[in-house]
Specification:
The protein has 326 residues and is of the alpha/beta class. 31% of the residues lie in helices and 16% in strands. The chain has ten helices and eleven strands. The protein has helices at 35-44, 64-74, 101-109, 114-125, 142-145, 162-175, 192-195, 231-239, 259-275, 307-318; strands at residues 8-9, 26-31, 50-56, 61-62, 80-85, 131-136, 181-185, 204-209, 244-249, 280-284, 323-324. Strands 2-3-5-6-7-8-9-10 form an eight-stranded parallel beta barrel, surrounded by four helices. α3 packs parallel to α6 (162-175) and α9 runs parallel beside α10 (307-318). It is globular.
């Protein structure tokens, strides 16, 4: 995911204490960015426990759609807000090559972007009635966060201290502005152990669960045929020492175009969440193509607009006391 410069994903709740991470419970968060789509899910199914928003380090702000979503949501005084902060997506537009991930991380850790981080933190703090869960970049990887070879991605040159230092620094700066906040480490599948910032700074470990992650095709691309969970996702799950969170998820074509396959996707995510006791599930409930995404790989993932899928969700998720809504 991610066409948004440096994104910081947050989660907001009404009390100044961490989310109650009880075994056997999973908080439901619905995103991303668009207030009208969130309201459609809220009115069509049920108010979820939280929302998902995006911003960037380069501007020190949420994008305008996420600002509207957060303002509308916070006005109700309920739930939590997940904010995604990625610096990888627009690094090549801001003075770095794609091969300078480690350098960018070190620059962040050394305070180069503190003014922007402080601006973002101050903005978030104005919504004092919500709680944030903050992703310090998302889908982080060795190639884009540890590489030091100036001309190519080269794992033999990875600096595995760079991202953990940046994570700890971002946490320190943002926490200085926002008191009611926790932080998510969200790697690409299979790289959690390489880039883990440490138990002292991580509150949740996140994963992305799209079609390929649960062994369903995306367009003409298949993955882990015959299985129901990518082995690298399982590797990261088994590595996790902190509560686990599905930080991004959405059904994609062709499954999004066929009711039975859409339900298969949701069922596989649900089964994973319950088997490995995930604390949260953020689902991107959106008509992706109308927002500019390619219809080849992104479809209409909205649950409430398809009656059989809505019925399945209400019966199996809303009707299951494990899943925490507003």
């Amino acid at each position: 995911m991610g066409i948004l410069d440096l994104v910081i994903i947050l989660v907001a709740v009404t009390v100044a204490t961490p989310l109650k991470k009880q075994a056997g419970q999973t908080y439901i968060s619905i995103g991303q960015n668009y207030l009208n789509e969130w309201q459609s899910f809220q009115s069509g199914i049920k108010s979820p426990a939280g929302i998902s928003t995006y911003g960037d380090i380069w501007s020190g702000a949420l994008n305008s759609d996420s600002q509207d979503l957060l303002a509308g949501y916070a006005a109700s005084g309920t739930g939590f807000v997940e904010v995604g902060m990625s610096w990888k997506d627009a690094m090549t537009n801001n003075g770095y090559t794609q091969f300078q991930g480690a350098q960018l991380c070190h620059d962040i850790a050394n305070g180069k972007y503190d003014n922007n981080l402080n601006a973002l933190g101050s903005y978030l703090a104005t919504f004092a009635n919500v709680k944030y869960i903050f992703r310090v970049d998302y889908e982080v990887s060795g190639n884009l966060h540890a590489n030091t070879n100036p001309t190519a991605f080269d794992e033999n040159t990875w600096d595995l201290t760079a991202y953990p230092e940046a994570f700890a620094h971002v946490r320190n700066v943002i926490s200085g502005k926002v008191s009611d906040i926790e932080f998510i480490f969200h790697p690409v599948r299979g790289e959690a152990q390489l880039l883990y910032p440490g138990d002292d700074v991580v509150d949740y470990q996140g994963v992305s669960i799209f079609n390929n992650d649960v062994c369903l095709p995306v367009g003409s691309t298949s993955n882990c045929d015959g299985s129901v969970l990518d082995p690298n996702v399982l590797k990261d799950i088994q590595f996790a020492t902190k509560p686990k969170w599905v930080a991004e998820s959405s059904v994609q074509p062709p499954a999004s175009d066929a009711t039975d396959d859409f339900i298969t996707y949701l069922t596989r995510v649900k089964n994973m969440i319950e088997e490995y006791d995930f604390a949260g599930w953020t689902y991107i409930n959106s008509n992706w193509p109308i927002h500019g995404w390619s219809g080849d790989t992104w479809g209409d993932s909205r649950i409430e607009t398809n009656s059989p899928i809505k019925d399945w969700y209400e019966s199996n998720i809303v009707g299951d006391s494990r899943y925490v809504f507003a």
